[in-house]
Amino acid sequence: xxxxxxxxxxxxxxxxxxxxxxxxxxxxxxxxxxxxxxxxxxxxxxxxxxxxxxxxxxxxxxxxxxxxxxxxxxxxxxxxxxxxxxxxxxxxxxxxxxxxxxxxxxxxxxxxxxxxxxxxxxxxxxxxxxxxxxxxxxxxxxxxxxxxxxxxxxxxxxxxxxxxxxxxxxxxxxxxxxxxxxxxxxxxxxxxxxxxxxxxxxxxxxxxxxxxxxxxxxxxxxxxxxxxxxxxxxxxxxxxxxxxxxxxxxxxxxxxxxxxxxxxxxxxxxxxxxxxxxxxxxxxxxxxxxxxxxxxxxxxxxxxxxxxxxxxxxxxxxxxxxxxxxxxxxxxxxxxxxxxxxxxxxxxxxxxxxxxxxxxxxxxxxxxxxxxxxxxxxxxxxxxxxxxxxxxxxxxxxxxxxxxxxxx
Length: 408
Ligand code: ADP
Fold this sequence. Notes:
Blueprint: E1 3-8, H1 16-29, E2 33-37, H2 40-46, E3 51-53, H3 81-92, E4 96-103, H4 105-127, H5 133-138, E5 143-150, E6 162-163, H6 164-185, E7 188-193, H7 200-209, E8 213-215, H8 225-236, H9 243-253, H10 270-283, E9 289-294, H11 307-318, E10 322-326, H12 338-357, E11 365-370, E12 373-378, H13 379-394, H14 398-405
Parallel strand pairs: 1-2, 1-4, 4-5, 5-6, 5-11, 7-9, 7-10, 8-9
Antiparallel strand pairs: 2-3, 11-12
Helix pairs in contact: 1-12, 2-3, 3-4, 4-13, 6-7, 7-9, 8-9, 10-11, 13-14
The site of adenosine-5'-diphosphate has 16 residues, from helix 4.
């Protein structure tokens, strides 16, 4: 059977195990010899016990576990050709020419580069007598299929990444707990949630927790928010998953005066608007306030809006009893939601199918979710778009960032 290996790389997320399990079992079902590679690219470079044949039962009882049982790592060695040469040698000597990579855009970029170099890596290995002529010929094509594991939902080309839904569950559980105590003491709570350059978690959290305010790196604030809201909602209808849409729906649902996100940061008068909003809420009888801050929230000048800063604003101006909760890695842990388990299963099966159907000309693909269908998209197109979003954010071109994030 064909040699196929699966590994997880970059940051972990819930649901990765479901994907690993699915790849292993689908691979075995289709007659492949399937391997785990432990600790991401590091295990591929180091070889030895890190690359281990998997069987049907080696992926039993893992679907409900968070994180990744085969480990994940950042790997400097793989960034250099020398490291990739070792990795190629470790794969060829085991007859592995099909790779399923579960990671973020960095991991997928590395896989793409590896494939581009494959031929020349094998030539060099042959020259140095590290592989035989037979092996050079037999394993001359490397096939790649990727999947995105990330709680941030920050990858272009997919409606959801593996782990986002579970993270949201974790956050909502925490907020529900906080709300009950905040109510008792009439407190204001500021919750920082993850999502470095992507306000998805913050926005969806705000939407599902009735937050009063949300600061995220990419949305429309300003004075005439009502007009803008209607206008943007119309625009957004064409682009149902764009962050604008979510931000605006969140604003509507939570009756926020403003939305603060990283791709369209707040104007300078955000302090007044925030205070006015909180005061109004208390006057109308609400016993608590919840403010969601994405870890990447910034203002128009690009200055970070941190939970600490928001707290200072609230305390200095309103003298409200204000506390901060930074959820941190709790969001990435715990058992995966049903959605993430099934997403991992479906994507894993599709990734193996893609590899088995690949011809020498087939470009690397990434399996994504598009309107509840697991589909294959050209890997590098999606990576390029994802990187273009980061660039647009760095250039303070938030409209472009949001546009690029939407479905193509
Ligand atoms: P993520 O996959 O979550 O974006 P990283 O960007 O840290 O996380 O990438 C994970 C690993 O993928 C890196 O530690 C490195 O081993 C590999 N990698 C990332 N970018 C490249 C690249 N341009 N070339 C080769 N390997 C890369």
